[in-house]
Write the structure tokens for this entry.
Amino acid sequence: MAEGVIAKWFTRAKKFPILLGKFPDGTRIPGGPYTQTQGVFLLGWLILGGTQIDRWGTDNLLYNLVLLAGSGVGLTYAIGKLPTESRNPLRVLQGLVQAVTAPTAGIYQGTRLHIASPRKARHQVQVLPYVLRGQPSLPAAADRGLDPQPAPRAPSNPAPVPAEAPATTTTRPKSGGRPGRSHPKNERQDEPRRPALTGVQRALAMSAAARDEEGN
Amino acid sequence: MRTPIRTMAHNIRWTRGGTVWADWIIRGLPYGLKSNEDKEAVRSLHQGLYRALPSESMLLSLCSGLDPATIVAHMLEGVDPDQCPEWAEECRQSWDSLELLGPGRRVHWLSIPLGANSARDRLWEPIRAGASNFRDMVGLPRAIIAPEEIERRVRQAQEISSVIPAPFEPSPATPAQRAWLHQHMCRRGLFQDLDLPDSAHDAAEQEYRPTSAAALLEPLLDEGGKSDLKGMSRREKATAWIPSKRRYLKVTDACAPPPAPDASGETVDEEVASYQAMLPVVGVPENGMVFPGSEILGRIDGSGQNVDYAVRISSSPGTAVEVQNRRALRNLNEQYDQREGETSHAYNTLDRAAASLAELVAKLEEDQLEVEMKVTMIFAVGAPDPKTCLDQARALSSYLSQAKYTLSQPLGSQLALWWAMHPGVPPSEVVRQYEQISTSSDFSTLVPFTSSHLGDNDGSLFAVNISNGPLFAENVPCGPTSVVLHDLEGSADRQESGSVAVGGELGGGKTATLMKLAGDVFDRGGHGIILDRTKKGEWSIWASSVARAQEVDVADPKCSLDPLRLFGPVIGSRMMQTFLTPLLNVPPTSPMGVLLADVLDKEYLAEFGITSSGDLVPHLTSRCKLNGAEELARLINVFARKDLGRVIFDGSLPPLDLANPAVVIRTNQLELPSREELDREHLFKQLVIEKIIGRALHALIASIARYVCFRDTSQLALFVISECHAVTASFEGERELIEFVRDGRKHRAAALIDIHDAENDLPSDSLRSLIPTRLLMRTSDERMARRGLRWLGADPDNKDLVKLVTKDTSPRLDGNRPPLHRRGEALMRDTTGSIGRIKVLLPATEARRKAIDEAGMAAERAAVEDGDAA
């Protein structure tokens, strides 16, 4: 392709609106042309409305026919005016329905998530005092048939033990930085430091030591 | 819909839907500021790629974060922090700066379903997938895929990759990379992903390598973010419930742990929800796009948004679509009939469609290799909150509308479009609806697989790549912005010249750029000589921030540059002869030249105990018995008696200590002859003494620098030449510089020079082309800008480029200095020949940055004084 040449899209060569302007006998359809969707909709509306006329109709047949035809024509006209962005209007309507009926808790593993409302758990438990004679109280591991380890002797005045670090750690973006930009927060962050950062760690340690010396 | 991946092996993924896909990471081709010929070559390669693709394929282009830790690790590569504490501190400070900047890059991905042409695969694979799904459903263990089957699929993938044009360097995606991709999709806009895992990069590979199905996030997908309505007040709900205001998808990690308190006990506000908007292209420019200029995919980062996009392609050879084309023609003819007699512009529409169809058919018939492509382009933006997400979507739509592309944000289809961006998901009805029709030659003008990468893989943190556009404000880049590393030592190891030339007008930022590069080299354990011709001695001010730097002012020397004292009789005598020949203007073979050679002979010097230039003149005057000695002494004395001669001939000055890593030699007081004065004999004869001394001294300094930089090949050495025209004004200086640049790579030495006008300041073609890394900073003069662009390797006749250099590179707003975030902008050509836009970063260390600022202020004062004097 030579420089400055115009590259084209050919979408309209194949995606042009197919309209119905004439009946098969060649006479013009009043108010036409109509899109295929409009035609299908009107036909479906008339068939559905006609077969179900007993449900919605009144005793006045003429009134019923006028109502059926009028509503059909009106809705068909409205479908023709929908902002479809080259989509099938029925698909647009389908999207609207999907948006309205989307589950309030989301979709998880392909199924609508339903979170049960909170319920109170009720208990009816009886605890009886009972100690097996001639046996010390057993560690839980021994109860489960595991190899019991001798428990370390507790100091007479135990020092406070720091709480175990949570499995997940988080980093906060630096103040002034771009919002939300930080390292990933996931379960594997408490794994040993990455080998690629060895040099970085050394550099950091060195610069920190240098600053301490300056401070002293 | 569940995550489509069922099994992964090598670069193959077996999906739940019964298809098998292969994934590759694709290398983006250098594009940016290349010439039109180069752009056409890139387009042509894309065309070749599209023609090689099977019937279904998917291109993905993603914004990836760049972990500051990884960049710092690259900065420390090959440097021992124990030996270079200044560099360790610079790296630490750089880490903080990078955290604020948030660098990123673009990752290109290609996914192709395998076995589309095999009836056996099309029949059996869905059955296997169905059986596997059933096993999962009833809780049975998974059936293992036989090794032979994996090998067969890998072979299928290799057959496809073998026909992908080689410059794209398709590299099979690893399971870790696919886990990264999945996580990126789920956390789009949260900037939480690390670099793309790379086999050469252990950290990310370990982070993402999947060892079980649990390695992939389980996303909770909420179309329209309806779950957010739950916590809202009735009043908020009244407006928020309207579906058209919630055209986005909320993605959360269903298995994320609850917010945990940090070390200080505060609960960190975790941004676990990613709000994403998917925007397919619904309208294309009806009258086409002019190439170059049509690259909406290749230049999507110019939108300033962090945009991902997927292109789902369905391609068919021309012969295969003949039936469809005939049907389209029949439909058209029927439409003419259906709309006959209609009072509207319907016939115009049909005429345009007919013309378009005729053109398409003609294209397919003209070129037997041409394919028809049905492409669905889906753009995606993400943010931690709905408002930002919708703002980004609007900004992106507005950006693309300038190129006459229309984006939609279809209501109720966000979820389907989100899945459509995943490799392995079959094209849904939504995808088909947004298909646009093109051919390989036309669609290739969008050049999606491009790169603006510049610089080296390791080295000093030199600049930010602003090829997408300049920074919006300090630390606010335009789209994913990568960094430019520059590795002077690595260049030598790769047998390339590490020399750098910086061009631009006064005040464009040349000196600050050289100071940044030189400072990094000294911090990394290098050494060098700096020739400072600036009026206020900017380099001397800067050198105060460098440990063990020494200054020599040739107009007021505190130490001597006498070669005999610096290098001894063997090397010093040769250098002295090189210095005296132009100074005395004696041809080497003339009687005076021969006498000079005899006197500077090492044995002669040893015999008479001449150890310095200061001893030479008294010796010639009183003790030398050779013919013409007195005349030679008188001739040398013409210069030796001058104050400018003291730096060589004053024996009372201590010699320069060459053990110092940084030596600054100030020569601003020296005058220099012009080329005209040197070329024309009558002008040459009238040269003033200051110019003769200036010319000879500059050549001598170049010679000293060459010796000092070349003597130790284990250490990187620099020769920094501020105001390079001072050296290249003389033939000797130019020759020394050419030899320095040419041989530098063999001795781990590099020259850093600054110039104003590439063609005048670097008169020799070979010197201009020998320096591989070139920077062009702001040049307001159009003619000089064109010359600079030619030197850079860009198109000098490209008006946009000329405008970029003259008007949009570190622009002075209202005649003042450029705003802080626009300073240091330049066009850069790296050692590979790639050209892009950069913003040079000042050192992260405060003291070094302050020294550059002070030097810059001194330069400004000098400019003001010059202005006042004028």
